[in-house]
Design brief:
5 domains, four-stranded mixed sheet, TIM Barrel, alpha/beta
Amino acid sequence: MKMTLDQKCALLSGKSVFQTREYKNLGIPSIWLSDGPHGLRKQAGASDHLGLNPSVEATCFPTAATIANSWDETLGEKVGEALGEETATLGVNVLLGPGLNMKRNPLCGRNFEYFSEDPYLAGKMAAAYIRGIQKNGVAACPKHFAVNNQETRRMASDSIVDERTLREIYLTGFEIAVKEGNPKCIMSSYNLINGTYANENEHLLSEILRKEWGFKGTVVTDWGGSNDHALGVKAGSTLEMPAPGGDSARELIAAVKSGKIEESDIDARVNELLSLIFSTSKAVKEATKNAVLKDGELNLPDDIKKKHHDLAYHAAAESMTLLKNNNGILPLKRNTKVAIIGDFAKNPRYQGAGSSMVNTTALDNLLDCMEKSSVEVVGYAKGFDRLGQPDDVAVKEARELAKCAEITILCLGLDEVQESEGLDRQMMKLRQNQISLLKALHRDGRKIVVVLSAGSSIETQWKSYCDAILYACLSGQAGARAVADALTGVINPSGKLAETWIEKYEDTPSLHHFAGKKRTVEYREGIYIGYRYYQKADVTTAFPFGYGLSYTTFKYSDIDVEADSVSFTVTNTGSILGKEISQLYISAPGKMVFAPKRELKGFAKTSLKPGESKRVTIPLDDKAFRYWNVKTNRWEQEEGVYKISVGRSSEDIVLSDEITLKGTTDKKPYDMRKLPHYESGDVQNVGKDEFVKLLGHEIPDGKPDISRNMTLGEMNHARSPLGWLIWAILTGMLNRSLKKGSPDLNLLFQLNMPLRGLAKMTSGMISMGMVDGIVLELRGFWFVGIIKVLVEFVKNIIQNRRLEKRLYNYK
């Protein structure tokens, strides 16, 4: 039996928050999609997309930001495989992750979900996750495609970026993930890119993703991220989520009948979705036989819980990053008397907030783990209020406790308010009460080891007040045991930073163009994000990209550069087993096109016993020497001498050689005289005119307009007392929740949501016609607007009933 046009159009949008439609008479089942960058979040009972309602227990692995510090693709694939196993066992077809957007700015509130500031590292790790997840027959869904780098106005912001930067920085990670991971699904981002929403951006979805990269799978919108569903389908977007109701299907039907799109566009998208449905359903049906039924919900069996808790520990252990270790204070010697101080030691920060929040199967804390270790714990003190409130009593207790110990373990970090989906961080600093406690203990003459729990980089002007710093990042449900084992020498920390830690926020290249008041976000820094900027502009950093210490030492020697690989020898010159992450950087000639000082093009993690040497070979792939030429509109290779460098970090280069290559074009992409700040790397001072020359077109004004795409947070700009009132109520409620230290994520989402989202997020209760009535009201046509809302409300109910009858009573 063939599908009708109505049925095909309706299939291309969800029936509920996390489920697609089914047609039992056609043999088409419904499938589940669930959040899960670092652990499955399948909600029990009523579903929402922000992690507000409870979810079924699952393993909370370290976040992507944490495991990226392992630089270990094999580990990433193992974690992915475990995620995929839990996904299938709990009856979910599509795992919404991993996230691999670039860390353009350290204040992005969702950086804990993303791997790196470098697209090569992010792409390699994401591809590994995808391969692992899909071994179980379910689908991975890397996100958010693309140029999604802030939470502020994330559903309506317009990322203004030049084509070379788009290709080299913001798409390369996705390219690697797609080509090497072969995901069955990919999620489009909320934002616009150069004036066109990502989900209906033909250049992004059709020309690049599908035609250039060969992606054959399903493109799913971020939840509520569809603007014009018909244009999305035409551009290559498959599935609109969560549950827009019949209005979405009618939009597609009308678009086909009017000639706006072809029925062949619908057919192409339906075929993609059916392939996803049928390819995952068999695996899910088989895997759920292993689940335990509890209170009507599928749950993980105990053997999977234990196995994956152990893997979560291993993943955290491989990602521990030692940033400071004066006089070899770590590892702690057996029977050392230690004081454990800091709220995070007893109440751990182990994951971020929002849609990725996992209901753990178990949870370790550092205090318990240290009490079971080889040291003597003399006591625990809370030390500070984690939300920053003064607490003199807690400080006094901590100082008194520290007197009884030889070494103080001080657990510092960012709290749940500072790192969450939906809002960007307000500062790079730790809470002042944490820093004040550290300084007080230092003045008391204590030896202090700081354990940091934070999903993104922070300012560390305080680092001189402690003897050692162990960065745990957000290390998942078993991370505390990994921290304890790293402190006591059971494991040797081998992680290295996947993002640069700067001295102060004012040093970041996107300082003047991040999360501002306008809708447009100008990527004036171009290709110079992260270490690419700090090295080019000669900015001193606190800890460079790729940095991390070990309890042993390594020596590099004998580099050999070939056209397709670089080989060298690494020797463990210390007294204990260790793992070294070797990093390969390439410096382009830089005569034909401006370029960073060096760029990561490969890496390898090597385990070595004391005195052992190994020959390491890092391949040079098709991304090693390329740059995007905006004149030829293709990848090109510059002629000249390339410097090949191997280092312990991006700034600690230990071996180097050169290779001379031929060029692929004589066409220069730029007149360098007109781009002086890009030539020098001083991109904080790029002016509007210079940025326009780089872009090749003018910059939109970025002012809010009263339309379907006005956000609820912009209704104070409307011409309606009702709009002003709604804005005042929502803003007031949000501010009160922030002051209490528990940000209301639902309110944050609502304030960032365009008015069209009302029709996309309400399961068919509100139609786009009703939204147009609201827009009229906000424009000042109060009576006409209200009448239109009421008329369209009745019309929507009638049309929804008629559509449902056609869909499911078809004979």
